[in-house]
Amino acid sequence: MNRVDLTAKAKDLLLELKEKHGDLMLYQAGGCCEGTQPQCFRKGEFYLRYKDVCIGEIEGVEFWVDKDLFEYWKHAHFELDVIDAIGAGGFSLEVPLGKTFKVNYRIFTQDELQQLSEVKINL
């Protein structure tokens, strides 16, 4: 069972960004402002913290989550979506396109919790 999936709009945008920028990564921080939305970077241009968690890969893009946020949301499924808006800041690659990634959450069922994919920890 995947911990993260994406909408068709988010898939289209990720593919557009990959074509323009190459390999990408997504990062969801637990802080305020820019930390309230997932950020998209060229792979390797954002430095992960010790024990940050990769909850999965979508369209070949790793989705990393702040270690503290993961502890809070480890029982939730993430669905990457996109809206037509400019988010809290300008570091994410989709911002110049007038787009902002966002995450929709839902709690896993008990059956789903038993079938979850393993996460990868940054050490």
From TrEMBL:
It comes from the Bacteria. InterPro entries: DUF779. This is UDP-glucose 4-epimerase. It comes from Chishuiella changwenlii.
